[in-house]
Write a structure and sequence with these properties.
By secondary structure, the chain is an alpha/beta fold. It has 7 helices and 8 strands. It is globular, with a radius of gyration of 15 Å.
Length: 190
């Protein structure tokens, strides 16, 4: 099973989510792929993810969580909680710090729906931080031209993990399709 978690203000309509869904469908694995629309509340987002895992993961097959940006922060929390693998694409490392500038009325990128991001949401994010991680469970994909998050913080945080730092790639990680086969292999589904 693969659970894909999009980034802040993003959605399952993002380029990476759609490419991953297509790749899973082409391999006949659509029934093992989930990409929920995450709510603004981090606590609610984790409850939604926990429900999906409980309902669809039988514990016999591997569970892999893919997270992009804020989704990578969530994926780290869930991977440590469920003792599973995670693929992180330009992940947020210190989400509370990085999103503290985003308080207030915002909208999603793909459909302009408004939502409120609050101090309560920041506190919920802080509660999800895992200081200790097992690096061997992670695959880090990062661009060294990320204009939103610091790829060097990512590399340091996941020291010991399998890391692919791609020269010239920004936060959107537009080369994602080049790594789908690697992601599927890392997830044990190849």
């Amino acid at each position: 099973m693969i659970l894909y978690l999009h980034g802040f203000r993003s959605s399952p309509q993002s380029m990476k989510a759609q490419l991953m869904a297509k790749a899973m469908a082409e391999r006949g694995l659509s029934a093992q792929f989930f990409m929920p629309q995450l709510p603004p509340s981090p606590a609610q987002a984790m409850r939604d993810c926990e429900r999906i895992i409980a309902e669809h993961h039988d514990g016999k097959q591997p569970l892999t969580i893919i997270g992009s940006s804020l989704g990578g922060y969530y994926a780290t929390y869930l991977a440590e909680r469920h003792n599973c693998r995670a693929v992180l694409i330009n992940p947020a490392i210190y989400a509370t710090r990085d999103l503290s500038t985003q308080l207030g009325q915002l909208s999603y990128f793909h459909d302009d729906r408004p939502f409120q991001f609050t101090v309560k949401d920041l506190c919920e994010l802080e509660a999800l931080f895992r200081a200790q991680i097992k690096p061997e469970r992670y695959l880090l994909l990062a661009g060294d031209r990320d204009e939103v998050l610091d790829w060097q913080e990512m590399s340091k945080r996941y020291a010991g993990a399998k890391q692919v730092i791609v020269p010239g790639i920004d936060h959107s990680f537009s080369c994602f399709s080049d790594y789908i086969a690697d992601i599927i292999a890392f997830a044990g589904l190849a």
